[in-house]
Amino acid sequence: MSNDQNKQKFEILGELTAVVAHELKNPLGTIRNSLFLMQNRLNEEYVVDEKIDEILSRIFRNIDRCNNIVNDLLDFTRHTKLIKRRINISQLIDKVLEDLVKPSSIQINNDVSPNLHLNIDPDRMHRVFLNILKNSIEAIMDPEVGKGAGYVNITSSITDQHTIISIYDNGPGIDTSSSEQLFEPLISTKSFGIGLGLSIVQDIMKKHNGCATLSGELDKYAQVDLKFNKKM
Ligand SMILES: Nc1ncnc2c1ncn2[C@@H]1O[C@H](COP(=O)(O)OP(=O)(O)O)[C@@H](O)[C@H]1O
Ligand SMILES: [Mg+2]
């Protein structure tokens, strides 16, 4: 196959992925809403049944997993331009934390300077923080290597040329020598992950003329640094 044919094939595959992901979003939403109504109805009727509760939460959990995959695929295939505005970063992170489903055993501290403003696309950066924080939570809660409890600290610092936002967690950590690789698409160590989260993060950071790096130490910590050029 010629290079042109190959390129065309990948473009079609990308479009197909975007269309399928988009088409799956509505039925998934309908299933979730219907299940929610059913759960309410059962509560109204005072049906108390542990088995039914367990089954319902298993269905909810799996719908959420499908939703995450669909959102990752949509983000991965998105080509829209950034719509940048001057945004208060600490407030943006507070909004992300409201959207985040997390167990009470994990404490997340937003210590970003309350005055820090950056010229960014708030929707896209919302996704960046969500993907990184989800990774921290999933790492801490990992049944094999996670401790099931821990903390995440989000901080900011300013150098001559850069503004850096760091997301640190004391989960199972990462081996720094493999950290570059984790930004590649389809690299995942999870049984349920498809490995697009960090590659989406890097793509959005590059579109902001910045970059993301991952560092850490096994059994100690993992840290993502989001580095923005001061002249953005
Ligand atoms: N905070 C973290 N602690 C430990 N490992 C991490 C952390 N963040 C990312 N990773 C590693 O990077 C891999 C890739 O992450 P990502 O691109 O978001 O894909 P996914 O979450 O679908 O596996 C993860 O599977 C995990 O092995
Ligand atoms: Mg992820």
Structure description:
β6 (210-217) and β7 (221-229) form a beta hairpin. The protein is globular. It has helices at 3-44, 50-77, 89-99, 122-141, 197-207; strands at residues 85-88, 106-111, 117-120, 150-158, 162-169, 210-217, 221-229. The N and C termini lie far apart (41 Å). The chain folds into 2 domains: 3-77; 85-229, Heat Shock Protein 90, CATH 3.30.565.10. It is built from 5 helices and 7 strands, in the order ααβαββαββαββ. The chain has a 5-stranded mixed sheet, with helices on one face. The chain is an alpha+beta fold and 232 residues long. The model has no long low-confidence stretch (mean pLDDT 94). α1 runs antiparallel to α2 (50-77). Bound molecules: adenosine-5'-diphosphate and magnesium ion (MG). Adenosine-5'-diphosphate binds at residues 131, 135-136, 139, 169, 171-172, 174, 182, 187-190, 193-199, 222.
Q: Secondary-structure map with pairings?
A:
Blueprint: H1 3-44, H2 50-77, E1 85-88, H3 89-99, E2 106-111, E3 117-120, H4 122-141, E4 150-158, E5 162-169, H5 197-207, E6 210-217, E7 221-229
Parallel strand pairs: 2-4
Antiparallel strand pairs: 1-3, 4-5, 5-7, 6-7
Helix pairs in contact: 1-2, 3-4, 4-5
Bound molecules: adenosine-5'-diphosphate (ADP) and magnesium ion.
Residues 131, 135-136, 139, 169, 171-172, 174, 182, 187-190, 193-199, 222 line the site of adenosine-5'-diphosphate.
Short description:
This protein has helices at residues 3-44, 50-77, 89-99, 122-141, 197-207; strands at residues 85-88, 106-111, 117-120, 150-158, 162-169, 210-217, 221-229. With 232 residues, the chain is an alpha+beta fold.
